[in-house]
Structures are given as structure tokens and as C-alpha cells.
Amino acid sequence: GAVVSQHPSRVICKSGTSVKIECRSLDFQATTMFWYRQFPKQSLMLMATSNEGSKATYEQGVEKDKFLINHASLTLSTLTVTSAHPEDSSFYICSPGTSGYNEQFFGPGTRLTVL
Amino acid sequence: DAKTTQPPSMDCAEGRAANLPCNHSTISGNEYVYWYRQIHSQGPQYIIHGLKNNETNEMASLIITEDRKSSTLILPHATLRDTAVYYCIVKTQTGANNLFFGTGTRLTVIP
Fold first, then answer.
1. A110 or A96: which carries more pLDDT confidence?
2. Nearest 5°: CA angle at A30, between A37 and A27?
3. Is A93 close to B43, i.e. CB distance below 8 A?
4. Do B96 and A44 touch (CB under 8 A)?
């Protein structure tokens, strides 16, 4: 199956700082990238969908100016949490769109803790 | 996509079969049943999927009822590493579609 990596795997930052999370699809080209977040003891929730070379589409309740998504290439998408606050502490997971496969593949996740 | 209902938690003895049920009574004809699992602090992992026939792979078996309103994921010989949250998801088989994760079943394999 497809290999997806995320960096960093975990990050701790101070309130008010910005954090960038990278997601790479290592062995195939992803024209679409899904970004999920997962709060403790909750299920994954889709935040946004990005398409290579165009603006991301955000789910209701997700601030597009706070969660900046860049999908500049077919193998790299980034999520930047700007001016992070403790309520942004969560597990962030990327998943490339996989037309041609029956299943979805997911990155290993990035655990963000905002102090 | 149709909604699914799963028990919130289950226990299973190590080495025994784990049978995880899922109800999807509003499934439509072109929707598949997918199973994923998420081990703690990891991304979800695909397990198996099916349309109406029973399916088996190296990880699990999927039994779908004839009316397709429910299914059961079977892990034939559960190990401690199978402890995870298991998600049953119903969706059409088209590419580049995001998945809707319900609450899933937290399976705990007990030594």
C-alpha cells in the first residue's frame, strides 16, 4: 500500500506561536489531501480537503485563516496552525486521496500540544 | 453515505476470535462496507472491505448479511497488538473520497 509520512510526529509549543506540519506521500502522487484532527477520546474529524495547486476547502467550523493548508506539489502538503492556543492541542492526521486504490491510507499523525 | 452503529467497547481473550458487529441498515446498493482500525496514537489502518460477499484477507474476515444491513468483522486469533478502535464505514467505492469516522468499537484484547 501507499506510504505516507508526517513530520514532526509530536510538537510542543507555546501559546501564540505557529506550527507547521508536513505530510508526504512517498510512493505515489496525491492530487488531493485530506486533513483530519482528533481530540482526546474522540473520533477523527475532517478539517479540510486540499487539491494540488488550488485553495483548500474547509469543513464547517474550521477557520481557514487559522489552519493554513498548502498543497504545492503532488507529494507534499503542509498544515500550519497559526497563533496556536491550548484548544488547538490535538492529533492531526493527513490522508492522500487515492483514486485507483480501494482503501485510504493515513499518515502516522502529529500530536500537537500547546502550552 | 449511510450511517453505521457499533458497540462502544468489547473485550476478547488473547488467542480467541474477536467478532465485531456493525449495523448499517440504511446502506444503499452501491455502498461498500469498509473496516479500519486505529491503534493508540497512530493513524488509521485499512483492514478489509466488501460489497455483499464474504471476504477474507491476511488480517481478518468480513461477513455481510444477505440483506446487507449488518456485518461482522472477525479477527480469527486476536493478539495483544490487535487492541485498537475499530471503525465500520459505509461508502461508495470512488477514489479520492474522505472517510466519515463514527465512534467505532474499542477492542481490548486481554492476556
1. A110
2. 105
3. yes
4. no
